Amino acid sequence: GLSASSVSILRFIYVWNCILLVVLCTLAGPGQGFNTQNSLEIWVKFLGVTKHPRYKKREGVLVFELGMKFNGKKQFKKAMTRYVLAEKKVVNFMKDDHKRVRVTCDWDSYPWVCLLSKNSRSDSWQIVTYESLHAWSTKEG
What we know:
Layout: H1 4-28, H2 36-47, E1 69-70, H3 73-87, E2 91-96, E3 100-105, E4 113-118, E5 125-131
Antiparallel strand pairs: 1-5, 2-3, 3-4, 4-5
Helix pairs in contact: 1-2
């Protein structure tokens, strides 16, 4: 795969090409041969750019994001387990069925929650709810 810096450079090029394409389409006017939608779709497919990040197993602490995509709930559960072990957090897998996985903080006073749901438009699973901002203490044990 590509390194993180290569992906950043490609995304930068993609954004500038999108801006240039919009400017050219605006200057050319309607019906002048520029097809913005097709051009954008070609660039998105070529660069593999999506609006939402896809989970990739890496060394270090995992950072979950709203919209992050996973290949399946098994991959998500492994990533979550790795995260909570590394961060010494205690969570509960409150819901685990054929279309969603809900993980909540074991401490009632903290609203931390992560909900993974099956994306009906693709064959992936996606974080649809993620509340991470709070003063989460670790449980030593």
